[in-house]
Design goal:
By secondary structure, this protein is an alpha/beta fold. The longest helix is centred in the N-terminal third of the chain and has 15 residues.
Length: 110
């Protein structure tokens, strides 16, 4: 048995776990990041100067600054900090800059 759900990797609450609210809240943040994914930019390498909580970007191949080391991840800002998530097969997103939907499948966005 794993500690996360198979597709979204949401953390599961374990039997006799202390501070269950922490695990539950982390799962809610991940759902917020993935549900009706709205990207403010696609293949972006430089973090924005004044982001707002909830801003989400699909990172490019050479991210810099706070995004360094997270190539092709999804960057999601919550509580003033970036969180990074790996896309999974079937993930759909709307890209606001192009007005198009994209879907992740077999390692690439189409």
């Amino acid at each position: 048995m794993t500690d996360t759900t198979p597709r979204l990797a949401l953390p599961e609450i374990q039997a006799s776990q202390a501070q269950k609210h922490v695990t539950h809240n982390e799962a809610l943040v991940q759902l917020d990041a993935f549900f009706d994914l709205y990207l403010k930019g696609q293949f972006i390498n430089t973090p924005p100067g004044s982001p707002s909580d909830g801003d989400t970007y699909l990172l490019g191949g050479t991210p810099t600054g706070a995004w360094s080391g997270y190539a092709y991840k999804i960057a999601y800002l919550v509580d003033g900090s970036w969180r990074f998530y790996t896309p999974f097969n079937g993930l759909r997103a709307y890209v606001s800059t192009s007005g198009q939907f994209i879907i992740y499948e077999s390692g690439s966005w189409n």
